[in-house]
Amino acid sequence: MKPSLVLKMGQQLTMTPQLQQAIRLLQLSTLDLQQEIQEALDSNPMLEREEDGDDFSHADPMAEAADQNGEGPSASQTSSDNLYEEPTHNADNLEEGDWGERIPSELPVDTAWEDIYQTSASSLPSNDDDDWDFTTRTSSGVSLQSHLLWQLNLAPMSDTDRLIATTLIDCINDQGYLEESLEEVLESLDPELDVELDEIEVVLHRIQQFEPAGIGARNLSECLLLQLRQLPEQTAWLEQAKQLVSNYLDVLGNRDYSLLMRRMKLKEDELRQVIELVQSLNPRPGSQIEASEPEYVVPDVIVRKHNDRWLVELNQEAMPRLRVNAQYAGFVKRADSSADNTFMRNQLQEARWFIKSLLSRNETLMKVATQIVEHQRGFLDHGDEAMKPLVLHDIAEAVGMHESTISRVTTQKYMHTPRGIYELKYFFSSHVSTAEGGECSSTAIRAIIKKLVAAENPKKPLSDSKIAGLLEAQGIQVARRTIAKYRESLGIAPSSERKRL
């Protein structure tokens, strides 16, 4: 065989940069999309944000002509449209703090600009303003260690004890427990300090008096006991609660209430009140100090009911509106091939494609959200128990798109409904066959399980087999293992751990 040249014709699907941009925008969340739009506004001079007060009925005709013919007005023509007459101010009528005050040619010697004229700092509200809250506008998340170190700086102690306390605070985890033993803390200190184990334990007791209550404990029993010691002495059943967490915490964990009543010599009602006091404590005191800033969910779609009809609309406040800057677009000339004109033409094309991709994203999101609402009207009217089975393929067929597109649209997109804010993927669930030959959504089954557990007898909680029997009586055939899986996904403990007095 010898090499030869062969001419072949064929078709190949390639993704253009515009299509890649549209797909990327489609899978972005609202917060990521806002950041992407801001980056586009900063990098492309042809893009500008459309404000609510803009009047488009008086659009620049020169810009429209430039948009159609590719030729814009000269710089002198464009700048003449922006001329305005500055209003005159009477110096005698100026109020205190007005920015229109006259500026002399020179300032007095040894003076600063802030001494004579207003600055941005003067626009801050005064301390007498009740609406001004400095903390809420300037505070940030505080870690547990920094919170404890702040209290340590206020506590009087020697330099050696302060060093020991700092080491102990570093060994406290986010839940508020001391991870290292006192012996390990002693080994980590400098031997020249000549510190003994008793000194470390004394400093630990000082730290355990800090806020939040129960901090620095070495186990759960000590954590609960520290919190009980900070309660008022007249608290009902306080001594019995201390006895319970000190000696019988493992028996309480096994739900062996009869053994507890015998050992503590309490009646059932008395033991119930003691357990209620223990359950009011926080087993993870460190979780009260939140180090990270809260993350807020911005809904993409708003669903509301009007005249017995469910209406779907985009959240306009979360979707910035963009347009092409008419003035800059008017500078583009079709016949000019200079570097500046080529740059502006490319920027104009990118701006148009970016706006088109945003419109395509919003249109696709509206189509998918409308079909979801159409399928899940029962959920909107009656709740989780009326949720219908729904998969990506059903929506893809309804809107005429691929399942991968539906998956991108429903990821990190949220819908605001009268029942709360839900991610679009929440409305998709698998199905289970019923006795009548129909289908029941797994979300509806979880809601039924949650309802059955909430109404069960605390002394005799429902087992997984019993729940499966109750569902079968309703015509829903679910295996016991499936019930256990749904129960665990809901965070519901097994029947042996749900037993109450």
From TrEMBL:
PROSITE patterns: SIGMA54_1, SIGMA54_2, SIGMA54_3. Keywords: DNA-binding, DNA-directed RNA polymerase, Nucleotidyltransferase, Sigma factor, Transcription, Transcription regulation, Transferase. Residues 42-102 are annotated as: Disordered. Signal peptide: none annotated. Residues 135-328 form the RNA polymerase sigma factor 54 core-binding domain. It comes from the Bacteria. GO terms for cellular component: DNA-directed RNA polymerase complex; protein-DNA complex. It holds the Pfam family Sigma54_CBD. GO terms for biological process: DNA-templated transcription initiation. Residues 342-500 form the RNA polymerase sigma factor 54 DNA-binding domain. GO terms for molecular function: DNA-binding transcription activator activity; nucleotidyltransferase activity; sigma factor activity; transcription cis-regulatory region binding. Belongs to the sigma-54 factor family. PANTHER family: RNA POLYMERASE SIGMA-54 FACTOR (PTHR32248:SF4). Sigma factors are initiation factors that promote the attachment of RNA polymerase to specific initiation sites and are then released. This is RNA polymerase sigma-54 factor. It comes from Stutzerimonas degradans.
